[in-house]
Amino acid sequence: MYAFDYAKPASLDEAARLLADDPEAKALAGGQTYIPTLKQRLAQPTRLVDLAGIPDLATIKEEGDGLAVGAMTTHKAVAASPVVQRAFPELAYLASLIGDPAVRAMGTIGGSVANNDPAADYPVVVLTLDATVRTTKGEHRGSDFFPGMFETALEPDELIREFHIPVPEAAAWEKFRNPASRYALVSVLLVRTKDGEIRCGVGGAGPTCFRATAIEDALRSSFAPEALDGVTIDAGDLNEDIHATAAYRAHLIPVLAKRCVRRMLRR
Amino acid sequence: MTHVSLKVNGREVSRDVEPRTLLVELLRRDLNLTGTHVGCDTSQCGCCVVHVDGVGTKSCTMLAVQADGKAITTIEGLAAVAEADGRAEDGLHPVQAAFRQHHGLQCGFCTPGMIMSAADLLSRNADPTEHEVREWLEGNLCRCTGYHNIVKAIMAAGATMRGAATPRAAE
Question: With a cut of 0.95, is the ipTM above it?
Answer without folding.
Answer: no
